[in-house]
Here is the input.
Amino acid sequence: MDPTILAAGAGIVGGIMGAVVGGVFALKAAKRQVEVMLLQARGDVNERLYNQSLTIMCFFAEHPEVRPYFYDNKDLSTAESELEKLRVLSSAEMVAGFMELVALQLTEQPEDIQPRWKAYIVDAYNSSPVLRDHLSTCTPWYADDFLRLLPVESVPSSTPTN
Here is the structure.
């Protein structure tokens, strides 16, 4: 057999082997890069949720008269002024919007954290007649992924049924 043909065959086999080995390393590197990006995205979601939660807590600290309407089942009819009533109603929209954000980002959370966020949503709902009233009145504003997390006797789904 001609040595030139053997050399060419060896070159082709070597090229193929190099491409396969290089491809394997490239795939492993790409997989690792995707895993890092997913972890970073999860971290970004966590940071965004905790920052929003902190903003709401700061609001309650700045307006302590509003807090009992969301943590102590205080009824809106006991509001001392029209301004307090409006502040509570606006706060209900803010808290409900945050709860919806949490619900929509739930699958991006680590599995061991997801039950805690679900508990936050249920507890917040159960602790606030203002929030319950807002959600029952404004159901179509909110995503079904959020509404499904609320207790069974809560608001109906906003998905039209035919």
The first helix runs from residue 3 to 62. Residues 55 and 130 are 20 Å apart (CA to CA).
